[in-house]
Design a protein that fits this description.
CATH class of one domain: Mainly Beta
Radius of gyration: 15 Å
Strand content: 35-45%
Structural class: mainly beta
Order of helices and strands: EEEEEE
Number of helices: 0
CATH architecture of one domain: Beta Barrel
Distance between the termini: 58 Å
Shape: globular
Low-confidence stretches: none
Number of strands: 6
Helix content: under 10%
Largest sheet: 6 strands, antiparallel
CATH topology of one domain: conserved putative lor/sdh protein from methanococcus maripaludis s2 fold
């Protein structure tokens, strides 16, 4: 059976961590610092998870490098799949 959910918030499964039955995502705030949020997950849709509570549309979640981030840590976010920026003094 298939259903359609209007306005469902989807995040990649690898952005969600589970510890003792609780699910969390790392969110990048407006100052580009990490905050961990407890979320309520819904069903999985392919490689994505529906987030029912805890994250709002437009918020940025960490998908790669989760094992390296800590609360309050400054980060330099880029869209998923974007190439790393390079700077060179030529």
């Amino acid at each position: 059976m298939t259903s359609q959910r209007e306005g469902a918030l989807l995040v990649p499964q690898r952005a969600v961590t589970e510890l003792q039955g609780r699910y969390q995502v790392a969110v990048v705030d407006s100052e580009n610092k990490i905050n961990f949020r407890t979320v309520k997950v819904g069903e999985r849709v392919g490689p994505l998870w529906i987030i029912e509570e805890g994250v709002h549309p437009g918020e940025r979640v960490v998908v790669e490098g989760l094992q390296k981030v800590r609360p309050g840590m400054p980060v330099y976010p880029r869209p998923l799949g974007a190439a790393p920026s390079t700077t060179g003094d030529n």
